[in-house]
Amino acid sequence: MSKARKRLIVVGDRVLIQPEDGEDRTKVGLYLPQTAIDNQAVQGGKVLATGPGNAVSAPTELDAEPWKIGGQPGEPRYVPLQAHIGDYAIFFRRAAVEITFEGEKYLVVPQAAILTLVRDEDDPIEDGLGF
Predict the structure, then answer these.
(1) Cα–Cα distance, 4 to 7 (Å, whole number)
(2) Which of 23, 41, 49, 58 holds its CA 20 to 30 A away from the CA of 72?
(3) How many whole angstroms separate alpha carbon 8 and alpha carbon 6?
(4) Is 78 helix (H, G, I), strand (E, B) or coil?
């Protein structure tokens, strides 16, 4: 009998991030204790999955709203997130929730806590100013 494989499903406006390892040394070579690394305000990591976005209110109020175009009646609608799979996110460390799934550590971060995203230039999805 084979064991069913499980997967994480990210909900709402949350982003699943694989954190990068913190720097345990300063630029001059001094080793930092874990408490000093944990007190840094921001952290970075790779976006592995995103939720569908922020839910938009029920489409029963007004018929002429532009956000109602498309989709099936009764189907939930969402404002999509800016973060995409493969982006590198820099976010507020305090807003992140650490989880362990099948032996791996991940961070779940609300989109509002993400400060900036780094995306490859050849990515066809273009958000923001693209510095």
Answers:
(1) 10
(2) 49
(3) 7
(4) strand
